[in-house]
Write a structure and sequence with these properties.
Two copies of one chain form a homodimer. Chain A has 678 residues and is of the alpha/beta class. Among the domains of chain A are: 155 residues, Chitobiase, domain 2; 167 residues, no CATH class. Chain A is built from 25 helices and 18 strands. In chain A, strands 8-9-11-12-13-14-15-16 form an eight-stranded parallel barrel, surrounded by five helices. In chain A, strands 1, 2, 3, 4, 5, 6 and 7 form a seven-stranded mixed sheet that branches. Chain A is globular, with a radius of gyration of 27 Å. Chains A, B: Keywords: Glycosidase, Hydrolase, Signal. Chains A, B: This is Hexosaminidase.
Chain lengths: 678, 678
């Protein structure tokens, strides 16, 4: 933790009452100077705004006061902030020089100075000031009776200008309130780009008045009206967030082609039809790039979509076109020959290039997944890097290639939060790893990154738990200094950050209880909760192998949906095992065997629960094996009875087999360490 | 419980596998015949619809399948229902003769027949069929591994045609998602009228394009757009629910007069202005009934509001006009004299009568709170009875008077759920009590009742917990036979009903955890939860005495907001005390003293918690007194040590003093019984 003192503290005052380790800031600011003393919060606390900010600061400051009030119960007197310099005597003074613009490379810096009787936020514009308010909320401390802020000086600005979250609202529709609460949470983590995946094989989610067929035939009634879109764009703007729409073409087009089969590439006898997909996976439905009508329809779709989004970028997807329909279509093959297009990749570039002038009419530049990066692609485009070792590529390879080739680029490889991987893999995934040498110009093209929430296995009930709190770690990676990378320190802060997300309506904790209560059939959920803190959902898309088990309407109210990456009790157990293995004292052994005793009780509780709860049944095999192994290890460690090593190994391996509950035991590796030394 | 056997069971089959006591139906159906045997639910279960229903049955049946799937995790194969007779082989057959109309006195009856291999719902129209689906979901049973329905025949229809819930979205705005989830919950309880209180002193919540000033000046930005209103009316229609809008006039008009002060009754020097209120209470702002412009503006407001709501009724409020502005305005006094209006009541009638032809243009009849019932009021109006002993009136008096005077009438007195009274007071509040003798025609004018959720002390975070589950008891009162009135049986069923409301997104359980977690400052919430199950929020508006403590932006994240009427552990304690007092066995004594031991531990836990949680501090005085009294009673009952009776009485009375946490101990009465016998 050396770097905190050296890099961040500057003139660290050794007798400060509050140490930086006590601060649960995220993303960690660029510079903090802590001083002795505190600012006491009282019900008279007020906020005043000066300068020439955008009106969004009034909304932000009002929300700030309400959140502070809800958290402290102080009955703060100030209600709504609506005017410049309304309370010149206020203890918190916010000054912004100018109106902030919602676009990339805007200045988001701020300075926060807390003295014992005054707080000042200075920022070039309201965007920086909003970030300053979030930092201030995170700084709130308390003793047993009162609330206060530490005396501190913070100077802060982001390392990367693009700190995004993509939500796929196509596979499982996510209603307006889900989007809004996630925008609130993003803003609290200083994230500034919301990438909205609005169409895919499973549904078309945006109302188009010129093309009512799209939602009539390909949405199951689940779509955003244009009013709702505008409302969300406005809501995002008020929180300093840019919204980038995505209409995925030419692949992922089953929904579009359900309404307009005439521009598909499929050949066959009789009338060609498409239908929206109910499974996950990569499908054949692909637009016909040789058909002029394709561009007519897309152009008229863009005519209506583009004005809804002030952003200067438009995401056209462009990923995972499997080429099957193109290969099977003789006319398309002939077109390739006639136009000297060597392969489907070239044909897709041809298609993409045709979209550039169409988007230009609306002053939009093209953004697309990395497959769009081909020789002739315009250098105006943003390349969205997503593939990695999972797809047989070098991790982040496209990002570096794009930057070197002159493209602005954004990283999502390593930030796929739907893979259900642990914090560490995302947190340590730096868009600019030290080993990569880039020129300053090339580095500047690496705009930042985006967490990607694909929605095959999420509904409004569980989506928050897949996004949060892990996305906070990604937010820190994109905002903070590269040297801020201590995973243990992250975990400690994240406990508070995760709790505080509830203030913004994020449902990751509360809805876990709902799922467990449903599984328990309204019985006591303690044993289920304990087990859920030892288990993690299967990773890397193994849960929905081949995309066939879970369809778009399958229940996501199961045990795996209540579990999460970074299972909490598993982390504690792993630490206890490591401590014990380092130093086999009685106390360290006891710390480990206490877990075993709990697991035996837990298994019995689960069995008891299952007599009136069919949804508990799929959990029992894994719980039983864990309990059996725990009993064996207890015998060895507590009672010093030697256990048959074959039996032990057998039990251990059963701990590692696929559970009917679609989860895996997050304690397996630590258990293996213990078994291996017996 | 005699009536269940006699009235409801008819040919009750004595060897039925499932007894009616096992069924958690609510509202309890008119007729149930249980037979031996069960219908086993499998993943192949499908639904088919025949007849000539409204399309809403497809939405209802699709939601039914998804809820069944989420609850059981069966991966049911059927996705979206969209067509008549799509699955003729389906196990569940729904037949509706005709399209249901969303209006009062529509036929809502249904018949549900479950055989071991087939389920049939027959209904005149889709409204009855939707009710049948809710009953079917409530009938689902399980053993340890599977789900099934009992073989049963149910014939059902409502006792009253008006089974409503009013939500006040004016004092605290309630966003669209709050309204929608409550509409879902209403439908699950077979409620059919949503009364939407859209304007009051604290805010104007409906967008009017001809009157943008109303939301610009009097909403703080919190209002429903017309699209949102239409969307909610449609959503309600899909669930068989009629929406009645309320614009409260001529009193409760601060918001309206903030935009249009020129039609207010206030006199004074200089420019007359009004502003929206931040406190609760009855305010002076009142429209000027003598000013023609008042009717011009109201008429043009109604021109825009009325077409948004298909209902043939329009609620004009008409309550709590304190008359102060009228009395202080010489021109209004002169108008009264000139027009032979004896008092303000007459003047208000004059005003109300002027609204009737304005509403008639839109084919709307007038509905208003009981104050509108005056000599000349049109018999077309619906009288909404609300006053009772709290307001110095006979409970429900206006209802009976209205029915006898020839008005249709709806009861809300006794159904004010914001008073935080217990279940019993609402459940036993029959609109047609036996002691009241009415002719058949008069009885028919008693349309039913409405739960009233005034929103002085509710936000989206806690509103569900104030509405549910108590409103389910009111729903049963209005649907079921008058003889279904056993409070213990209600409580037992309500435990399951309350749990099942989570399926529809109702947040009463989950958000309690959120509030407690905030109070605990992210520490263990068990002691807080235990204490919350002993305490109830202050009743009858005592919490916000005079409307001054809590303003519209005050935090409602406090302990009282996590507590609820009918505190669960208090009910258990009261039962244990009564059992002990009936029969002072050792076991019965132990059952009581076990509570005391828990409370002593709980108090210590709360003290420990408070060292890092300022919001726990206000709870400690009450918890400490309870713990002290528990220790004294423990000494007496367990150790047979005689305690100083003065000390004991003193402690008891301290248990009954106002707590800084704005709650009261729901165990006080039982404690008093114990102290009194020592």
């Amino acid at each position: 933790m050396k770097y905190f003192l050296i890099l961040l503290f500057g003139t660290f005052v050794s007798n400060a009452q509050i140490a930086s380790e006590q601060l649960n800031l995220m993303p960690w600011p660029q510079k903090i100077k802590l001083f002795e003393g505190t600012f006491a919060l009282s019900k008279n606390f007020k906020v005043n705004i000066t300068g020439n900010p955008n009106d969004r600061i009034f909304i932000g400051a009002t929300n700030f006061v309400r959140r502070l009030d809800g958290r402290t119960g102080l009955f703060l007197e100030q209600s709504f902030l609506t005017k410049i310099n309304e309370k010149p005597e206020a203890e918190l003074q916010i000054n912004c020089t100018r109106n902030g613009k919602i676009e990339i490379n805007e200045d988001e810096s701020y300075q926060l100075i807390i003295a014992s009787n005054k707080i000042i936020i200075n920022a070039t514009n309201d965007l920086g000031a909003l970030h300053g308010l979030e930092t201030l909320l995170q700084l709130l401390q308390n003793n047993s009776t009162s609330y206060f802020f530490p005396v501190v000086e913070i100077t802060d600005s982001p390392r990367f200008t693009w700190r995004g979250l993509m939500i796929d609202a196509a596979r499982h529709f996510q209603p307006v309130d889900v989007i809004k609460r996630n925008l609130d949470a993003m803003a609290s983590m200083k994230m500034n780009v919301f990438h909205w995946h609005l169409a895919d094989d499973q549904g078309w989610r945006i109302q188009l008045k010129n093309h009512p067929k799209l939602t009539e035939l390909a949405s199951d009634g689940n779509f955003y009206t244009q009013k709702e879109i505008k409302n969300i764009v406005q809501y995002a703007d008020e929180r300093g967030i840019l919204v980038i729409p995505e209409i995925d073409v030419p692949g992922h087009a089953s929904a579009l082609l359900t309404a307009y089969p005439e521009i598909g590439s499929k050949v066959g006898e009789g009338k060609i039809t498409y239908e929206i997909q109910r499974n996950s996976g990569i499908f054949n439905a692909t637009l016909d790039p040789t058909n002029p009508k394709t561009y007519e329809i897309l152009s008229s779709i863009f005519d209506e979509v583009c004005p809804l989004f002030p952003s200067s970028y438009f995401h056209i997807g462009g990923d995972e076109n499997n080429g099957k329909e193109w290969n099977a279509n003789p006319a398309i093959q002939k077109f390739k020959q006639d136009n000297n297009l060597m392969n489907n990749h070239d044909l897709q570039t041809y298609f993409n290039m045709k979209l550039i002038p169409i988007l230009k009419i609306h002053n939009k530049k093209l953004m697309g997944w990395e497959e769009i990066m081909t020789e002739n692609m315009s250098k105006d485009a943003i390349i969205h890097a997503w593939r990695g070792t999972n797809e047989g590529q070098e991790a982040g390879g496209a990002l570096i290639k794009a930057a070197k080739s002159g493209y602005n680029t954004v990283l999502s490889n390593g930030y796929y939060i739907d893979l259900m991987l642990g914090l560490e893999s995302h947190y340590l995934n730096d868009p600019l790893p030290k080993k990569i040498i880039l020129s300053p110009e090339e580095k500047a093209r690496v705009l930042g990154g985006e967490a990607a929430m694909w929605s095959e296995l999420v509904t409004p009930l569980n989506i928050d738990s897949r996004i949060w709190p892990r996305t906070a770690a990604i937010a820190e990676r994109l905002w903070s200094n590269a040297e801020v990378n201590d995973i243990n320190r992250l975990r400690k802060r994240l406990k508070t950050i995760s709790f505080r997300l509830e203030e913004l309506g994020i449902t990751h904790i509360r809805n876990k209880e709902v799922i467990l209560r449903n599984i328990s059939n309204n019985q006591d959920t303690r044993a289920l909760n304990d087990f859920s803190n030892l288990c993690e959902p299967l990773k890397n898309y193994k849960r929905n192998g081949g995309g066939k088990k879970y369809r778009m309407h399958s229940p996501l109210t199961l045990f795996a949906d209540a579990c999460n990456a970074d299972a909490a009790q598993a982390l504690d157990f792993n630490e206890a095992v490591n401590t014990y293995l380092d130093n086999k004292t009685v106390a360290n052994s006891k710390a480990v065997t206490n877990f075993f005793k709990k697991w035996v009780v837990m298994n019995n509780d689960l069995i008891a629960l299952s007599t009136n709860a069919p949804l508990v049944q799929p959990l029992l095999p894994l719980s039983q094996i864990l309990s059996d192994l725990a009993e064996q290890l207890l015998s060895e460690m507590d009672k010093k009875k030697k256990v048959n090593p074959t039996l032990m190994k057998d039990l251990l391996e059963k701990c590692n087999t696929r559970s009917p509950a679609d989860v895996e035991l997050a304690v397996y590796t630590s258990l293996k360490k213990l078994v291996d030394i017996q």
